[in-house]
């Protein structure tokens, strides 16, 4: 049996985890948490084998809090990555928030709640249809749906997944309310053990690079080490080191496995110019269509 920690049941994380892990002849035990810190700690403390972490979204970009936990708070290697469609829906009690004709009564909705990332994916919809409603952020989309279920008659609605609506006997008041059709979230599977359930021809390696202080041209030299070897980079992101204002580290996703000949030599060259390099993981990468 494999155990995996993720955000609450009925959330996008839950659906994405089941898409990634289920159906390979191995029993999966899911441990659900309201806060991402508890998801990380469950695996870091050995209570679960893996943690499922949403790390980047098509619309909202990187999830800074989750990135900071991965880099600063735990030491859990990345074991796999995959993408999953984030289809958000407006959820509530139809008897409370629809007209007799069956049309949605927008004016009756006084509050909409969801996870901040999911809310950001629906910004234009909320401005257009529900500009009068109060917006409230909660720990997950499924938590938002449960809060709405437990507070009938108050004009509250949630943004979340179809599975969460079904689990809580609520209706899809309006489907697919995200601002863009091409809305995907990238997830990471982190843990101490290698991931062997699935294989992929595509691999990535994520590295954390901290530049030497007061070194003009250091970032250019870092990128040159990849460039002249024709190593493709799929993502470069800067984050503060939290040690001094103006000090940053760089998260770089390399489209190459660590076992290749070129990547270790590139890292050695980067270290030779005084940079600190930490490999966060070398892992298979799965697209949504690959399943």
UniProtKB/TrEMBL annotation:
Gene3D superfamilies: 3.30.70.260, Periplasmic binding protein-like II
Protein name: Prephenate dehydratase
Enzyme class: lyase
InterPro entries: ACT-like_dom_sf (IPR045865), ACT_dom (IPR002912), Chor_mutase/pphenate_deHydtase (IPR008242), Preph_deHydtase (IPR001086), Preph_deHydtase_CS (IPR018528)
Domain ACT: residue ranges: 207-284
EC number from the UniProt entry: 4.2.1.51
Reactions catalysed according to its record: prephenate + H(+) = 3-phenylpyruvate + CO2 + H2O
Tree of life domain: Bacteria
Residue ranges of the TM segments: none
The keyword Lyase appears for this protein: yes
PANTHER family assigned: PREPHENATE DEHYDRATASE P PROTEIN, PREPHENATE DEHYDRATASE-RELATED
Keywords (A to Z) from UniProt: Amino-acid biosynthesis, Aromatic amino acid biosynthesis, Lyase, Phenylalanine biosynthesis
Pathway note: Amino-acid biosynthesis; L-phenylalanine biosynthesis; phenylpyruvate from prephenate: step 1/1
Domain Prephenate dehydratase: 2-192
Pfam families: ACT (PF01842), PDT (PF00800)
GO molecular function term, any single one: prephenate dehydratase activity
